[in-house]
Amino acid sequence: MMRYSDPGYLTMAIRDLQHDNQTHHRLFRVLPSVNDLLLIPACRALLNTHPRHALLNAARRALAELRFDISSEQQTEAGLQQRIDQLPNLIADRLLSESRYSLRPVINATGVILHTNLGRAPLSDAALRHIVEVAQDYCNLELDLETGSRSRRDIHAEPLVLRILNGAGVAAADPDRYGVLIVNNCAAATFLALNSLAEHAEVIVSRGELVEIGGGFRIPEILDKSGAVLKEVGTTNRTRLADYERALCPATGLLLRVHQSNFSIEGFSERPSLQDLVALSKRAGIPLFEDQGTGLVSSLQRFGINGEPGLLQSFECGVDLIAASGDKLLGGPQCGILVGRTKLIERIRSNPLLRAFRVDKLTYAALEATLLERLTDDATSIPTERILSAPAEEIMGRCREITREIASIASGDLVFDVVPVASLVGGGTAPTASLQSCAISLRHVSLTAAELLAALRKFEPPIIGRVADNAVLLDMRTVPPHFDSDLVSLLSSL
Ligand SMILES: *Cc1c(COP(=O)(O)O)cnc(C)c1O
User: Fold this and answer.
1) 120 lines ligand 1 (CB under 6 A)
2) How many angstroms separate the CA atoms of 480 and 489, rounded?
3) CATH code 3.40.640.10 for 125-381
4) Ligand 1 neighbour 213 (Cβ under 6 A)
């Protein structure tokens, strides 16, 4: 290798450059023009399925990439010819992937029922039908059909939410004294409540509840942004009623209770009961706001999950204002539900920020349908209810049937088994609770578990599983039965 200080370096360098230039010229001449490319039958055929401008664009880009590689000397003559032969395929693949939706259905075989990365609660048929009928034409989103005058959009959810709360014998949920607001999500609901009711005022909250819910939703940061002043009391593991009492002062605007939804503190821990907090708030004349989160309306005890508090209990206790998610245990669309005493709801409603957090007609349609289903005796038309209530034996039966069918088709590269597993509720709900379930365990003779997991994601629809003990587990609790035959054919192709 010559160095630039060697005599003759310059001559050599110039000779190299000339040689490179000649090679480049030769290679560039081999490249077809865009027109030549479009005359190749395989390319021309793409005009049947794609617009001309998209095809031209893809062809130009593919050629530009080749030109770039030639000039940066990443291309030999033999390699170039091969890539030119591959151009029609490359262009076809690109056009296909560019015209495909980015947001696609996937098969959730993780066993996590409310998986935030996978869109949380799947919607019911009734919710989907109502979205379609309301969205394909105009609707009465903010029009009172009786009077013909302007109304507010929360009318479509308020009576239903209050009926659900009434249904459990909560006489207090009376429309004259309680109101409902729907916003983007529970985070927005909490922020808006704090900003409307406690800007510049102190909000008393236990140190054990200064939590991060996930996705960057941290109670102290939300509180700070809302303009409220955080007044922490107690310790991480123990907070007593007396701690709240001592913190009360003329600057106090709100008592805040946060549901410890995605973690649990075991052992030497305590916090006052909701009843005690309600009593204190009444004595002090300071409203109690609960970030309830899960939106649970019917008990999880039926599914063997104990101690998960619901909206109804909070109401029965007399909490003044509650924020909950629509797409967790309620089983509806993403939204935040604020329900509370009319006086508080009115103050929140008059906050100009509400305009920035309001939801669209699609959300009201899905929410209204879900709430109506909640009001029927059998809520299993709501997918999350069905998924929660599926018996482990039934799931095992499906696993056995699927593996039996795969065994009769598959190549033998796939080693599978049926194993007991535990499904999780997820979505920041019932952190310690699990449901008995059953999974198909997969190993591949030439792929690691991580590679197999990645291969499953490339399927159409993608299959999302998890890895345990060097095997991929597909928990069938969260896979709707109509996907069983797809699973058989997809897995058999491995
Ligand atoms: C999930 C949760 C939130 C956040 O709800 P989003 O609807 O995702 O904004 C807030 N607080 C609690 C207690 C939660 O469980």
Assistant:
1) no
2) 16
3) yes
4) yes
